[in-house]
Design brief:
Elements: H1 2-18, H2 24-36, H3 58-62, H4 71-87, H5 120-130, E1 134-136, E2 140-144, H6 147-166, H7 175-186, E3 203-206, E4 209-212, H8 217-227, E5 233-239, E6 245-252, H9 254-268, H10 270-276, H11 286-291, H12 306-310, H13 321-338, H14 342-360, H15 365-376, H16 381-394, H17 398-410, H18 416-442
Antiparallel strand pairs: 1-2, 2-5, 3-4, 5-6
Helix pairs in contact: 1-5, 1-6, 2-5, 6-7, 7-8, 8-9, 9-10, 9-13, 13-18, 14-15, 14-18, 15-16, 16-17
Amino acid sequence: MITSNIGKIFLNAYNEKYGTHYDAKTFFMEQYYPLFFDQNKYMMTAGNSPLENPKLSWEKMIRGQIPFETPEQRKERFENFVNKIENSEADASIAIGYPTLDINATTSGQVTNLQNSVSKDDMYCSWIGAGLGIGVQGGFSILFSETKILLDIFEGWKVYRNALNNTANLKGNQINTWNGQWLSHCYADTFVKNRPMANFSPFSTKDGLMSVEVQSWTGVLIVIARKYHDSQMIGYVYNYGQTNTTVGFIPFYLSQIRRPIDLYQKFFGIDSAKKAEPLWGTAFGFLRACQSGAIGIRAMEPKGLRDYIEKGKTPKIKESEEETINFNTYKIWIMAMLNNEELWAKAQEFAKEMQVFVKKDKPKSTKRKNQVDSVLESINKKNFFACITEIVKEAENSDKIEEVAKLIHLMPNDNVPYFLTLIRFHYASMDNKVTQQTLFDNQ
């Protein structure tokens, strides 16, 4: 199972980095169990394994309404757990991510008469691997096999343990959620290695109880894409609970994820780019993004853009920082899809010529505005050329307009709606500035 494989990859990397020779059982006994389970608050749920006591209420324990289990009670649970691993077949109660042996249960696997031998090491490794999942919004987690990521997640384990021990009203069992927040934090420019909790506020409070907030999937992937300059990384997407949900192995195209972020920073600066980050990938959820087969530039689409591309909707840009940043993400995502920075200037130039055309002849301004609106509302080559013909006949700078028209003619059909939308946004920005300046002049 994937959790066992990730656990093995991590353990090999750990032994190499720290000069140790742990096998899976010894690491579990000496490092993993004491950190995760042999304390008042667990770092992750132990499912229906002997380690877990489903009768206890975490909320009541944290509020002091009932006592935590004693060290002796935990020791008894631990011994039962080890005994079951040593003497039973692998199932969901002693190996994380494995199916139950009860074929009628919701976490059962496919029925087979093949003999699948699972070693004791595999069972212990499954727990180690499960502790390395990266939780993201939508209830899913991601497992990467990249050893540097796994070791960086491990560095956050002790920080989470300290937070649990030192914060009375912080609930446990959120290691995967913590891992997502931790990676986003430790890969940020503001991270201070000797003060890991500095500049870090991953908690929220409700009804007096604190919990780790779930990080957005784009928040995690953006920092990973910045940290690792691989063009692609494979991740395993899943959710383990009362029923197990497996999305599967998903390619994450890191270079594509980086592209709109880098472009935004180039055109609008670092500060604005930081403020724009929460807008990326908001057009649809993580599961739907995974269902396309890969996570790349398409998955980074900001919410609200689709009507402009598919229906030729005219943008109305308000003079506010929030609105400006929002529309800038639209333009940058389109640029990232087109993957040609020269088209930014071409779209601006064409939009400017449309502005000149409307305002050059005041007696005809209404007619010309209607002609330009028809061009701007175009969403494909056929619409565009049907509307641009009359403008070319009347425009003084027809050469510049024809130049862009030829560019659109040679452009792949799939790119045309994006380029026409980019023109529309540039025109709206220019039109908004002219309107604001007119209002200012009349005051």
